[in-house]
Amino acid sequence: MSDTDSDTHDPAALRTPIVAVLGHVDHGKTSLLDKIRGSAVIEGEAGAITQHIGATAVPLEVVSSIAGELVDPDDFDLPGLLFIDTPGHHSFTTLRSRGGALADIAILVVDVNDGFQPQTLEALDILKRSQTPFIVAANKIDTVPGWNVHEDAPITQTYESQSDRTRQRLDESLYTIIGNLSDQDFSADLYWRVQNFQRNVGVVPVSALTGEGVPDLLAVMMGLSQRYMKEEMEIDVAGPGVGTVLEVKEEKGFGTTIDTVLYDGTIRSDDTIVVGGLNDPIVTEVRALLQPRPLAEIRTESRFDNVEEVGAAAGIKVAAPDLEDAMAGAPVRVVRDRPLEDVIAEVESELADIAVDTEEEGVVVKADTLGSLEAMADALGEAEIPIVRAEVGDVAPRDISVASTADDAKQRAVLGFSVDVLADAKRRAEIDDVKLFTDDVIYQLVEGYTEHVEEIERAQQ
Ligand code: GDP
After folding, report:
1. Which residues form the Tr-type G domain (predicted)?
2. Distances from the Cα of 447 to the Cαs of 301, 359, 385, 438, 460, in angstroms?
3. Global pTM value
């Protein structure tokens, strides 16, 4: 969708579905995105690919040329697919849970050799909670012994050409994955046998390395969106922009900026916006909307093009004053055609939904995004571990101070999920005898802390 489309005031324009890629580390999320991006660049004519911050748009005609006869563009009126580039990003833990979309659909990548792993289960948990439709990419099929490569071919074709023994080996892995999904209450099957993708999870064998199965993967994503998500893709193109903060970043010359996924309306360079902040909603004015420049054009000048206006769905960097306390995973709303107070109230109520209940006493929890903070709180709640303070951000000396006031030795702890520990905080923790736990996998983090508690309890007996 080009920027000028918003002038048509078409009330029922359809936006691009936003796709998140999830899965365990090393199962091939980045490689799969690279493959899709690479194919899109090869197949797309110059100009067909718009640059996005944190996302790659693959227009329908490009999807169709990668997918070949599996996608007839005449069968679709959705404009393509927008892939979020940071796989495994913890903002995904909010996905669609609050009506607002960070992602509409997801690809869960599972290595056929390695099967289900902790982060696969965590991803499934998120998908279940947010009721996000997804398909499984059973990746690395090229590593099955005896595999006969057919670069970029549909899986049906490449599968047929394998020896019986090779096919059998692959089948075993695929049925294990289907069984694992069923253990998690998802009814799943090989995608070519799935009738109703809304009720069944389609498993698509792929290789991110050779491109086999990628045509099928795109065709299934496109079909799933067109068949089941069309209504949700209806947007008010000229309406006030609605989005989610993907990341908060320092940008030379622009100060603190927010990388934003816009999923409704438009955002303009002079708009007033309300952004979810650490303390209160932040009200500020857009100073610049920044789009990445194509690599070839970057010399010594800015890496970005300044644009006047962007319409959903898009990934855009927003530069504005006072964004220091903006939180990844928080809502972004343009104030246009309605009172500022209403927009602030909306952002507040969205944030209140995510807010974590804290107790008088408990551990301190830090996480990289709102979504991951919420997921941490859920996991700790299940383990009956109370929380005294929960915040987005790196572990800072303040957190140590709070933890050090606990009377119960078990609660003199800070649990950090996907965050750094500031050097000062590390020193303070040693001095104040506060235990620090950090990890990128929630269950390992909780397990680490639980073991520590057990040790203390044993020592007390
Ligand atoms: P991520 O952590 O999930 O993003 O995984 P990466 O995309 O970084 O992949 C991890 C490793 O697996 C890298 O060494 C990749 O080259 C390799 N890899 C990913 N996909 C495939 C595949 O389809 N076939 C093979 N043979 N290797 C793959």
Report:
1. 14-229
2. 48, 21, 12, 11, 20
3. 0.86
